[in-house]
């Protein structure tokens, strides 16, 4: 692969990496609870003024924690406030009490505030001055009356999850300030759930209709998994804090990474049909392992928590390595999807780098987690890739259909020519007998009988269909397919076709137009003939005028003519001819007109061609 081609692939990936990196950097400094301005807690207390409570205040510092009845120690709230990370902590299982004295130092004696609890992964109860104000399954908010001395006590009990205690900082502030946080969190959680869900439904609809591209299916599974993974924030606000919710979230994130790797491998050809069965098992096994590990193994065997953390890290790194390898292989094989895979790799790499650099010192205040931003970016990149891929495959399928129409037209024309050749051979064989018969009549002086004999031969010649109607393969095939059999059944056929061998019109569109016009005309003549019409006819003309294709088909009007029904025995498969013709004609800035009288039906159409049509005619 040339250096220029590699550069064309690397530039979009670099742009995506910088864009996602800038977004994550912005959120780290401007939407991070750990980067919020003071006040800060200290030695088990925090003081709040009127200006402080006008915004949400993260309660990060100053908490006193006692694990399993041990002496209280001061800690900050974060992932390292997990029981197992505290001094002398060896296990995430157990119980703990977190205490913080909140003092209001403002213009009033007391102030009504709201505390917003982030996810607490196990059973908990929150007390304010000894009164229970919140517990698990009650939702994240609790109202408080804060004065000179309001003691917050959070009791946490954990026997099931790898996160224990108060892992994420709560927020406190006025009702309006907390409502703004809740609104932003709810809106972005809705986006995180609904956007991938809509994309998944659309992908499944496309796959169900086409069914030949497993990349579309895997992309749908990726979007569905991301939608399920994003449900955690909404579930918490609904009071669903059961351990199975978080186990399902972890399993969904595992499915996101596995499906992303599958999309990359399939789209670049790394995962061929021989490996597809194994890939389906892997896509199922990894999320299932995660679900069982979180929901069953960790509660029964707490010592596996550290191993589970290593497993999750390796899973994410493995996905990134797989994307990188697929992009490299795709670039080497000149796969058009390789640059998109490289962009997805850049988005995921920016997230992994951010998680490594922030050292667990990030939790969003209003927005999403870094991993969620990167997953949305990765879905957007894959969606763009699939749009281009589906268009390319549709164009290829259209070319295949065009070729199939041409092959079918060639077969029909060849069959008609063979029949005409056989008829010519028979006529040449009979010619000697006709000559002898005419010579005998002339020798006898039976001029009237000779004249009648010649008229009969002329009528037989007129009833014979021509060998070739047009030099255009598709047009000739349609005419020989409908007009020649009709003429053999006794229908009078008049045909005047003047079109070039090549038309700037898709063969499939041309075949649809002519097939519907001629089949309807042939059917009408058959019905008229069965009704006793002495001489049904079809008069067809087609020509190119400037940049327009003009066609006219006139045929006898049968007694039971109707434009709303068809006389075909398989009527459920018919009746769509005129709408299909109108759609094609309108797509080419044309018109379709149908006139009917007492004795005839006339169908006229005109549509615009390319600029070179007139020159070729």
Describe the structure in your own words.
By secondary structure, this protein is an alpha+beta fold. It has 15 helices and 16 strands. The strands form 3 sheets. Strands 1, 3, 4, 5, 7, 8 and 10 form a 7-stranded mixed sheet that branches. A 5-stranded mixed sheet has the order 12-13-14-16-15. A hairpin with a 3-residue loop joins strand 15 and strand 16. Helix 10 packs across helix 12 and helix 13 runs antiparallel to helix 14. The chain is elongated, with a radius of gyration of 39 Å. The two termini are 44 Å apart. The C terminus is likely disordered.
Based on the model shown, name its key terms.
five-stranded mixed beta sheet, 15 helices, elongated
Summarize model confidence as the mean pLDDT: 83
Please give the number of β-strands: 16
Distance between the termini: 44 Å
Helix content: 40-55%
| Overall 3D form | elongated
Largest sheet descriptor:
7 strands, mixed
Helix count?
Answer: 15
**Structural class estimated from helices and strands:** alpha+beta
What Rg, in angstroms, do the CA atoms define? 39 Å
Uncertain regions spanning at least 5 consecutive residues: 563-576, 611-617
